[in-house]
Amino acid sequence: MNKKINKNSLKALKMFDIEFFGSDKRVLLRVINGWLASNNKNKWIATVNPEFVMKASKDTHFLNILKKTDLNVVDGIGLVWAARYLTKKTVEVIPGSDLINDLCKMAEKKRYF
């Protein structure tokens, strides 16, 4: 069953003028699987680390790119700490290297190739 996914519901928190996905990897994989199973396959996901945030603070072009993504995933313990301090929310680190491995496994299992 594919429910329509509301992009705004995926943005759990906003820090440094960037919206972040703030749930766990299982939820993220369900969201991505829903996109792949639907006709809505063209999505832009960034795994954002603290270095990205520092770059975006000095480079408005890069900041605008991060604002246009469909999802910005927290990829760094520094952003977890920032979320806890700035928003009082707990988020999970989802490293891009782990995410791509999980996506490849999902693509193979679901035959998305």
Account of the 3D structure:
- The protein is of the alpha+beta class and 113 residues long.
- It has one domain.
- Helices cover 50% and strands 12% of the residues.
- The protein is built from five helices and four strands, in the order E-E-H-E-H-H-E-H-H.
- It has helices at residues 25-37, 50-58, 60-68, 77-87, 96-110; strands at residues 13-15, 18-20, 45-48, 71-74.
- The protein has a two-stranded antiparallel sheet with strand order 1-2.
- Strand 1 (13-15) and strand 2 form a beta hairpin.
- The longest helix is centred in the last third of the chain and has 15 residues, at 96-110.
- The protein is globular and about 40 Å long.
- Residues 1-5 have low confidence and may be disordered.
What key phrases describe this protein's structure?
two-stranded parallel ribbon, two-stranded antiparallel ribbon, 113 residues, single chain, alpha+beta
SSE string: EEHEHHEHH
The overall pLDDT average reads 87
Strand runs, count: 4
Poorly predicted runs:
1-5
